[in-house]
Amino acid sequence: MTKPIIFIQGNYRAEFIEKIKASATEYRVKTTLIDEDLEFVEISVGWDKKNEQQLLALSPLKWVQAISAGVDYLPLKEFEKKGILLTNASGLHSISISEHVIGVILSYYRGLNTAQKNQLAHTWDTDDIHYDQLSGKNMLVIGTGHIGEKLAKSVVSLGVNPFGINTTGHTVDGFIETYSMKNLAKIIQTMDIVVGILPGTDDTFHIFNNDLFSQMKPSAIFINVGRGDTVHTRELTETLQNKTIAFAALDVFEAEPLPADSPLWELDNLLITPHISGLTKHFQTKLMQIFLPNLTSFVKDGSLAKNQVSLKKGY
Questions:
Q1: Are 219 and 296 in a shared domain?
Q2: How many domains does the structure of the chain reveal?
Q3: Is the per-residue pLDDT at 1 higher than 90?
């Protein structure tokens, strides 16, 4: 009888391939597929968009391990219809994204963004350098999962006061206080730094819009490292053009790569980074710390030990 397949997408180190084989001896492990393999793929690490329809139509797929925390790019309705389990990589990027956010904040409050521009122009100018004290500022983290919790714990040492927003307002370690999403417009009024770390779902689509931006302090800054479609791009552009808020930093966008003709490129109170906040050292090692325990559990009884995604909720 032909063994089912675990399809590993990407150039993973040999040591991890061997660990996968040892944990699931009744499976074949393949890093490339031919047409004849499709009808045997039961587990996929990563997702092959090119062969998406064939995988869904032909494979007895049972479980997909996403390599990202966000899963809005996956065919969740098809997964739900076919009973395919999904786990994500939530927590894997928590240090990287937290450090990215802290770097953005420090660059803004210490005027490093302007200094860099002046350096390129060979200009010695202290008059236009924006500076402020980070210590004592209030930060609102919208999305208090693994990344939000890590960020909250990290900024405390800088004197920042972290507050959080999540669906129900449940408490999360590291935050002074957490609030439910329905209180967002009220709480945001007192915040100096607002960080979006939300997944892309129907409920979060364009949640960052004029209604929220108009409630923020004129001196406030907005950072998005969640999903690009949580931000209403045109309304944020207008907000920054009108100086309704002081500054924004975007690492994710509704359209990626960001089109060359986007008006965002022209804004001097916006920092654009090309979806790099999640770049993570030792990525494979960290992903295997999620995948291998799940594989052991799945082989044993079909269950998953950690990071299972609700296909209805999208996270």
A1: no
A2: 2
A3: no
- Co-location of 240 and 157 in the same domain: yes
Q: What is d(CA 181, CA 184) in angstroms, rounded to the nearest whole number?
A: 5
Query: 64 near 85, Cβ under 8 Å?
Result: yes
Amino acid at site 63: W
Q: Burial of 14 by CB count in 10 Å (0-12 exposed, 13-18 middle, 19+ buried)?
A: exposed
Instruction: State pTM to two decimals.
Output: 0.93
Containing domain of residue 117, as a range? 94-272
Amino acid at 51: N
Instruction: Tell me if 76 sits within 8 A of 41, measured CB to CB.
Output: no
* φ, ψ dihedrals at 14, nearest 5°: -60, -35
CA 186 to chain centre: 25
Please enumerate in sequence order all residues whose Cβ is within 8 A of that of 66, keeping only pairs 6 or more positions apart, or say none: 46, 47, 74, 86, 87, 88, 89, 309
Give yes or no for residue 51 having a pLDDT over 90: no
Specify whether the CB–CB gap between 197 and 97 falls below 8 A. yes
DSSP letter for each residue of 189-241: GG-SEEEE-----TTTTT-BSHHHHTTS-TT-EEEE-S-GGGB-HHHHHHHHH
Q: What is the mean pLDDT of residues 150-170?
A: 98
Quickly count helices (H) and strands (E) in the chain: 10, 12
